[in-house]
Design goal:
The structure holds 2 protein chains of 2 kinds.
Chain A (H helix, E strand, L loop, with lengths): L1 H10 L3 H23 L8 H4 L1 H25 L1 H8 L3 H34 L13 H28 L2 H21 L4 H4 L4 H9 L12 H26 L3
Helix pairs in contact in A: 1-6, 2-4, 2-6, 4-6, 4-7, 4-8, 6-7, 7-8, 7-11, 10-11
Chain B lengths: L1 E10 L2 E11 L3 E6 L6 H8 L7 E6 L14 E4 L11 H11 L5 H9 L15 H13 L5 E5 L7 H16 L3 E6 L2 H5 L4 E6 L2 E7 H8 L2 E6 L3 H10 L4 E4 L2 E5 L3 H10 L6 E6 L2 H9 L13
Parallel strand pairs in B: 3-7, 3-8, 5-6, 6-7
Antiparallel strand pairs in B: 1-2, 1-4, 8-9, 10-12, 10-13, 11-12
The chains are: A mainly alpha, B alpha/beta.
């Protein structure tokens, strides 16, 4: 019931659809740039094809997920939500499921579409759709989709914790694009704390090239688990706080 | 039935609700009165599980709100009509609320019809006027057909027609045997609507009484008399079974008319320097009760 209510909430405002459209344009646009930048006879690996989805699409979807809850705090709608469903953990879980499914589906579709676009542009004479048989394509699309899913968990948790849209958006943008790259590049300390950053781990997991890479002895799978653990921790912390706090 | 027992909520140093104990009965409209900042909204939020009490309990038919799985079928509440997503239509707003409590979708159109919003149902909630928002909030409260209803200042910002509609609605709901608990900071709003009154000030219970009781108390008229022979007059009045209180050189005679006191004084040849009837109005009786508990008093204009 709560899940159905949250699904209706997402579907009855326009912003998710505009966001999805923007994410599609960024993702496919960057895929097209990757394809056109490739020299003749070159192959573009799938993790380069999905660079737009992973580096810009997923963060935008995370902002949308965070706004699903900070927006309710801004309008006071959260009180109506808690009146309808006094079990606040159930509300948070429903929001996470809806956000994760929405982000996951869009990311999965756009990842495959990005590879298809690159494949269609940089053609080496194979039959169309042959890329679908390559395990590397599915590995990449799967990893980026999982990144989006746990990104949604992280974002809803963060939104529930900070309650203010501006604060949530600031964290979600500054963390991957400013704080992590700056601290990671800091002399002496960077190489030590860099591997602990959640988005650095997400990047290692998806293997999509980003500003910097750290050598993580726990490898891509470990990095994926690390990011998921950070996301779930933030969510659990949010649940504990939301149970106690008067909205 | 709503039962409050020792209900207390402390914010920092402020005791917003202070040891409130009372019960709100079904089948009647109970007015919840108090000056602004008296703790009415906080009390309602405590009943609805939005705020957690510092001490005490608030139960509805014996249950704590936060432990009910489909609460909208038990309690409907209008807190702040502006708590909507501005870009979601009125109908879709009610749709998700209905879905959250397993209420059939056709009920959405029923309540829209009941509050007279059928034609505006497709409008975005943010585009509705204050009066229409209030109706949407009431529609949401009625969705689950609940036996208990709470309205926080439901007529705020309504035009006279809207006010009359809300009053009639509350009377109808109570007539159907439901518990109706309505807050207001204006007694006049409640005078024609409520059967019982719960009056609070600074979070404390000042009075829990029937409207009839309150009215008779408000109707008390007294007479103010000044006389050089005040002591003698006091004795004579007491002999005539009129109770009076002496306040300096003034005597306040309760439950008496100016004519009565004047005649008694004339019969005994007493000189009167002042004889004035004092009729307490409904508002005055209310002000009297809540006077000490107004937090945000204006400093007043000296004349």
């Amino acid at each position: 019931m709560t899940l159905n209510a949250e699904r209706i909430k997402l579907q009855t405002v326009r912003s998710p659809w505009w966001t999805a459209l923007a994410v599609a344009l960024i993702s496919l646009g960057l895929a097209a740039i990757q394809a056109s930048a490739a020299s003749p006879g070159d192959t573009v690996p799938p993790e380069r094809a999905v660079i737009g989805v992973a580096t810009f699409g997923v963060p935008v979807l995370m902002i949308l997920s965070a706004l699903m809850i900070t927006g309710e705090h801004r309008t006071g709608l959260i009180r109506t939500t808690f009146l309808a469903t006094p079990n606040r953990v159930r509300v948070l879980v429903a929001k996470v499921v809806v956000a994760a499914v929405f982000s996951g589906i869009i990311t999965a579709v756009l990842s495959v579409a990005s590879v298809a676009l690159v494949d269609a542009t940089v053609k080496d004479g194979g039959r169309p759709g042959a890329f679908l048989a390559e395990p590397a394509v599915w590995r990449t699309a799967g990893a980026v989709t999982l990144y989006a899913v746990f990104g949604a968990v992280l974002a809803v948790g963060l939104g529930a914790l900070v309650r203010h849209s501006a604060a949530a958006v600031a964290v979600l943008l500054l963390m991957p694009f400013v704080i992590e790259p700056l601290l990671g590049a800091a002399p002496h300390v960077g190489e030590h704390i860099g591997p602990l950053f959640p988005f650095a781990n997400a990047s290692t997991f998806t293997q999509v090239p980003w500003l910097q890479t750290f050598s993580l002895w726990w490898g891509p799978v470990g990095a994926g688990l690390y990011f998921a653990a950070v996301a779930l921790s933030v969510f659990v912390l949010a649940a504990v706080v939301v149970i106690r706090r008067d909205p | 039935m709503i039962e409050l027992s020792g209900l207390t909520k402390v914010f920092g140093r402020t005791r917003a609700v202070d040891d409130l104990t009372c019960s709100i009965e079904p089948g009647m409209v109970t007015g919840f009165l108090g000056p602004n900042g008296a703790g009415k909204t906080t009390t309602m939020r405590l009943i609805l599980g939005l705020d957690q009490p510092t001490a005490g309990t608030a139960t509805i038919d014996g249950k704590t709100y936060r432990h009910v799985s489909r609460p909208l079928r038990m309690v409907g509440a209008l807190l702040d009509a502006r708590q909507v997503h501005p870009n979601r239509s009125a109908r879709n707003h009610l749709r998700w609320i209905a879905a959250s409590n397993g209420i059939p979708r056709k009920r959405v159109d029923e309540v829209l019809e009941m509050v007279g919003l059928s034609r505006a149902a497709g409008k975005n909630a943010g585009a509705l006027s204050l009066g229409m928002s209030q109706r949407l909030g009431i529609a949401a409260a009625l969705l689950g057909d609940p036996p208990v209803l709470l309205f926080d200042e439901p007529v705020n910002g309504l035009d006279p027609e809207g006010i009359r509609w809300v009053r009639t609605l509350m009377r109808t709901l109570a007539g159907e045997g439901r518990t109706v608990f309505v807050s207001s900071h204006l007694l006049s709003e409640m005078a024609n609507t409520a059967d019982r009154l719960v009056i609070i000030g600074r979070g404390r219970l000042i009075a829990a009484t029937t409207m009839a009781d309150f009215l008779s108390r408000a109707g008390v008229s007294s007479v103010r008399v000044r006389s050089p022979q005040l002591g003698h007059l006091h004795e004579i009045l007491s002999a005539a079974k009129l109770s009076a209180d002496r306040d300096g050189d003034v005597l306040l005679v309760r439950d008496a008319s100016a004519a009565q006191v004047g005649e008694i004084a004339a019969q005994h040849g007493l000189t009167l320097h002042e004889l004035a009837a004092q009729q307490a109005s409904l508002e005055e009786a209310y002000m009297d009760l809540t006077q000490d508990s107004v937090d945000y008093r204006s400093s007043g204009v000296r004349q």
